């Protein structure tokens, strides 16, 4: 079941990426990142087939990096690399120039970003710089999209002598939009905030949060170095739309409470992902600091 889902995500993402190349980038003289960008620059300069170039270069890079990548990812990439070339080959004559290259760049970035996001969610790669980004991610924990963005940017800048500075800048816009679209697919729109609250009435605030929001909180002890006084600190992770309501509850209990809000990239485990009725029952029965997350 999992492999079927990954294959579906990989195929859909690869198709979107191929369309961004053939329908938007190629007819509007835009570049791309990675091996796809290299293939486009060769196409503009000496009319080499992008489908053939991506197949050859991606195959070489996969052979170099296969020892450092998970076996499952290698197998999916072996399927994905020729699939990308096939999609490019069958759609490369369908694109038409757009009067405004900036519009082409924006939508090329969106298609590329959505495609990359689906491929990454399917535990595969696009080949090329994506393989390098995956290797660096597994070895050093580097961020996938940021690493891929930097590698792609280097290739795009090298194409300034072929497509000119204006179209190169449009391509950079497309890459930036693509990164944001990839993050959107990987992280979703259900953003969260981590909230730290320092207050002498921490337990009252925690009780109010549990009662009025069916949420839970962690309370731990802190020590203020300036005041030389001990204070309880509450830690809560909450969905962004509910932050305003949380602040109102805090102010009702202690209007002088010190509140710090952080962006949260990912949340798993704890009670954050529990159904509301299960979370409420857990809060009412345990009421202790072991229930770490709120919703």
Automatic annotation (TrEMBL):
It is found in: Cell membrane. The chain crosses the membrane at residues 43-66, 73-90, 102-120, 149-177. It is a multi-pass membrane protein. CDD domains: YitT_C. It comes from the Bacteria. Keywords: Cell membrane, Membrane, Transmembrane, Transmembrane helix. Residues 216-269 form the DUF2179 domain. Pfam families: DUF2179 (PF10035), YitT_membrane (PF02588). Its main location: membrane. This is Uncharacterized membrane-anchored protein YitT (DUF2179 family). It comes from Geomicrobium sediminis. The lineage of its organism: Bacteria, Bacillati, Bacillota, Bacilli, Bacillales.
């Amino acid at each position: 079941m999992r492999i079927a889902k990954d294959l579906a995500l990989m195929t859909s993402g690869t198709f979107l990426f191929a369309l961004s190349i053939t329908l938007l980038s190629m007819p509007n003289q835009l570049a791309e990142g990675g091996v796809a960008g290299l293939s486009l620059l060769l196409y503009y300069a000496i009319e080499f087939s992008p489908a053939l170039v991506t197949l050859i270069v991606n195959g070489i890079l996969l052979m170099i990096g296969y020892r450092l990548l998970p076996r499952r990812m290698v197998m999916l990439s072996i399927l994905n690399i020729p699939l990308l070339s096939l999609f490019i080959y069958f759609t490369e004559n369908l694109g038409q120039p757009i009067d405004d290259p900036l519009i082409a760049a924006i939508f090329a970035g969106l298609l590329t970003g959505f495609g990359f996001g689906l491929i990454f969610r399917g535990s595969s790669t696009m080949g090329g710089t994506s393989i390098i980004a995956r290797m660096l991610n597994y070895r050093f924990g580097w961020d996938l999209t940021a690493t891929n963005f930097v590698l792609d940017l280097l290739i795009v800048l090298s194409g300034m002598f072929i497509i000119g500075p204006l179209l190169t800048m449009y391509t950079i816009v497309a890459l930036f939009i693509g990164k944001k679209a990839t993050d959107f697919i990987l992280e979703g729109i259900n953003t969260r905030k981590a909230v730290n609250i320092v207050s002498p009435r921490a337990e009252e605030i925690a009780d109010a949060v549990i009662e009025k929001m069916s949420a839970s909180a962690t309370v731990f002890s802190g020590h203020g170095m300036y005041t030389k006084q001990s204070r309880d600190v509450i830690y809560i992770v909450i969905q962004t739309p509910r932050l305003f309501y949380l602040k109102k509850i805090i102010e009702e209990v202690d209007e002088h409470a010190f509140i710090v809000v952080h962006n949260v990239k990912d949340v798993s485990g704890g009670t954050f992902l529990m159904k509301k009725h299960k979370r409420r029952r857990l809060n009412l029965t345990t009421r202790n600091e072991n229930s770490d997350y709120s919703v």
